[in-house]
Batch of 2 targets.
Target 1
Amino acid sequence: MEGQFIKFGKNLVTTDEFVAEGHSFCVGCGEALALRLACKALGKDVIIANATGCIEICTSPLPVTSWRVPWIHTLFENTAATVSGIEAGLKILMKKGKMPERDIKCVAVAGDGGTSDIGIQALSGAFERNHDFLYLCFDNEAYMNTGIQRSSATPYGASTTTAPAGKFSIGQTTWKKNMPEIAVAHNIPYVATACPSYPFDLMNKVKKGGEVKGPAYVHIFSPCPTGWRYATDLAIEIGRLAVETGIFPLYEVENGRYKLNVDRPKLKPVEEYLKPQGRFRHLLEGDIEKIQEHVNEEYAKLKAKVACFAA
Amino acid sequence: MSKRVGLEASFAAAEAARMADVDVIAAYPITPQTHIPERLAEMVADGELNAAYIPVESEHSALSACLGAAAVGARTFTATAGQGLELMHEVVYIASSMRYPIVMTVCNRALSAPLSVWGDHSDAMAVRDTGWIQVFCQNNQEAFDMTLWAFRVGEDSRVLLPVMVHFDGFHLSHVTEPVILPEQKEVDRFLPRFQYPFALDPDKPMTHGAFGPPEIYSEAKIAQEVAFRKSKDVIIQEFKEFGDIFGRYYHLVESYRTEGAKMLLLTMGSFSETAKIAIDTKKNKGESIGLISLRLWRPFPFEELRQAVKNAETLIVFDRCISFGGPGGPVSSEIRSALYNEKERPKVVSFIGGLGGRDMAVKDFEYVIDRGREIAEKGSKELFEIVGVRGKVTGIRG
């Protein structure tokens, strides 16, 4: 890919901000940082369709807006359908000569609930219909906008307001839904995972996803100090630990070919990632062992896919 | 030269969308709407229509895709029925509140349970207050005419609102009738190219669909309501314009043989044509009766309705939907409310029938007229009467 992002610098990464200052994201929000980087990678020739959620609420209170690119919010679960219409609309208007031919990237932005729960049907449909669009899932692992309710992306053992840890419950009793693999199962040309702790990797993946013809999906790990209950200056470190423990591996799948972008010879113990977070505070040694076993197993599966279908 | 051809209402609506040169169609199949998307998909496949056909995975996504297409300035069309309209319910509000002039055909269908694919007006009544301009068709010619007209009205810069064209499932959607198709150049004269003034464009970044805190929401909604009510002037103007070009003049409230009639029957949709025969029969017997058919359902034509019924002593309103536990059929309660403050107003008698595809024949309307007169004279304990069901129904008390 030409023009890869390798370091920050005036000529390397645009100094333009597409999500203006003055938004209302929480202090230390990992998602806001990821969004800022993603928009820089995409540039100005985009139309963004945004699902209801933290990003939508924190950037668009009438009568003001943070958006310096064309942006639309309609509902919670229909963002992939809305972006389908945008893409099809632009394409036909250009074909009919009602609009000058140009490259406009159609981008959908949603949270983990809007993607892997309520929006999964619309997303699956848009993938299957092969629209030319990029879908960015900002995964903060629960319904943070409404107050930390569990989603299917909430990890096992995390305490949330609707799956709280208690005398008779560990909190979340199910394993995190593997949304990137669900995207891969649609045989779309590009799927990747990213994390703002690895900014150039994130920007390159978003850029590539925008350039690919056909559907692209980038699942962005978005540490949330409010919901995960860690100190507000730890977002970068938490994200890095998620990758280094193998809890959230960074990989991409291009035309079915897997590539692990950060491959450590030895994974850090999951405990290092779990300990600083209040949502896991109640976990006992046995619980942590169980999570470790699960992470080992999932990571081994991923490595096997990388070996079997190498890029 | 215009031509006269045999078409189902479904094909008539599809023809209108084709002649309107729609850019984007997004639809999900549901009985009895299927012939519309099938026909449009065929036109696109055969190159008769240069449009994007999006075969979405649900009605919710159908209208959501229309939002996106309309937001970039595409002329956008969809069609649905019954459960499909219910599934897209929340999107229906978004389309009107965000002022996207999408045109949607609704082949009116009953709502489950029990499952029924057959016709009544329950689906239409469930979206009564969604802020869409809504008209009902009596026949297949109107299905064509209203669809074409819907684009013109909705896209008018003074309006910018979505329009719903209702016609009865099966009774019209699947019945072939003669339809006059105009020449393309007449259509082009009536319907100019759509220029959406607020299209999403990277050169002029705009935010669509920001959220409304309490300090803003009320102002936003009242602005929408004022604009919606004002659209009535354009609706009237465009009916006239349509008539001047195509020779068929339509009105918000249609009257049939109402001159001097002491009693009026009010219907909506295709049953109006059946009712007309009952009116003729009764008139031939010397009864003082006429028919009112509501074409425009929203924004409600208060003044036109009051004018149309002001000289009548009795107004029989026939609904094809039950408002459970409410004040009668939804149409009759609207009519009562519209007339309540009038010094002189007809007595309103409410009937419900034709539910879930139950037919209403001429003799059924004759019964409605006879029984309606009886109720007007002697009164009834029931809020409304249901027509054509087995067994005696009582206990519908207000």
Note: DSSP finds 13 helices and 16 strands in chain B.
Target 2
Amino acid sequence: MKQQIASLGSRGVAALVDGLIYVNLAVMLAARVVEETEVAMVMDRLMTFLAMIIVVGPLVLPWFMAFLVSGMGGGIGKLITGLEVVDEKGERISYWRAFFRNQIGRAVSGLVFGAGYAYMFKDKERRGWHDHISGTYVVNRGNGNAVVGVFVALALVAVLGLMLRGIVIRVGENMPVYEEVVGEMRDEFEGAAKKI
Amino acid sequence: MSSVDYGRILRRSWELTWNNKWLWVVGMVLAAFGGGGGNTGTGGGSGTSSSNLREIPANLPGQLPEKAEEVLGMATSAVGEWFVSVPVLTWVLLGAGVVLLVVLVTAISMVARSWAKGALVGGMDLADSGKEASLKTMTGFGFSNIKSLIIFSVISGAVVLGVVAGYGVVFGVGMLVFGWFETLRTVWLVLTVTVGVLALVLLMLINAMIGMYAERLIVLKGMAPWEAWKRGLALSKGNFLPTLLMGLLNNAVGCSAGCLSMMAMLVIFGVPAVIVALPIINSGFSGPGWISVGGLVALFILFLNANVMLRGVMVVFSYGNWNLFFKQIVDKTEVKQ
């Protein structure tokens, strides 16, 4: 491996950026749910939120992430921090190897309190279990750097904070409506139970 | 039969398991993705008290109001109306999405299981021959055998399904033929069900044996899936009793170790969990504190992770037993030939 192995710090920043992007997207959808007070609209948005989080996301993201890793060298976080996932020859990995690394490799690394990720601290080439089993290395590509990644991560944290603040305020405002609807439903079910 | 040294197999397998920690990682993958085989227990289900059932009036539907709105009010019917207002196509698309997701997860689990089986069988063989069983060396076995092992599992499943379906057809034809005569029909029913249950048990047993031999033939001898199935069947038939005994021993050791370690884990995690949960129960199940909830969640996560690790080690031990047994049987058969 002739290329320079990426530092743990830059890998951490890349992972943070990736994670924050997903969290921001989820919170953005959640924010749309609390915007509404009418039961039908709340249910509409809730269904959209759940469908995106539980069905569409897990269905689409694995393919998209494999495309990013095999076609461009890494996820958005790695692209920003200038990192690249390569094989032992220093070349980009195939689509299916990227899919295997992302889905099965990461699941392996996540076993037993993420021991496979912690292994990167011990490994000479800073490879986690997912890198070992898929025969990959994470190297510095040159363009982009960890500092840019840190700024992007901070910006994403700021956006997340603003969205969460908005959600808390909106939920606070809507709380009487929620309590009224939930209370009514509880009374109605209790009434129905008594009738039966 | 007596030529198989079971004691040596168990000792050597444990030695290899203990000395090659990288094998544990692959074992944990099999434990997590459900490919460990054997030693799995299922929890008891909950039952409904018959006395409670008796309290429900027999003419219940007649007593219920015809429309939900008569007993449920505006808020509930608003939710109900929303459900009705959602276009059917949306539900169909959502259902299709869920089905696709299940297919994707099943496919990923299948690939993970096949990879891990190949890696563990190959890794155990490397360890037994004194070579290093690292993630790098094992993963080669895993990758090169994914396709063959998936094809084999499809063949194996299809054969079982075919036999069960064939038996179903025979049963159906018999019912049609003997259906005219009450006594003959009853005799046919009792006979086919009794034979069917016994045959099913035997089929599952043989299928597991074929799987054990065939997976190793594919990974260690480079056989094609169908050839491996046929050779696995021949080896299972020729060595039925020794294989059955190895399976029983493997399960007995696995179950005993599993039960003992589960009991130890229940003491380690269960007692603190009860201590943490006691204040919640004492205060009438109302308002558990964040610390109690956090403590219980932490204990549960600890338990899950320790459980996966433990099961992973047991899977490695089990695969080790089968690998060593396979070697003895195949060596013996090859010498005979």
Note: Residues 8-189 of chain A form one domain.
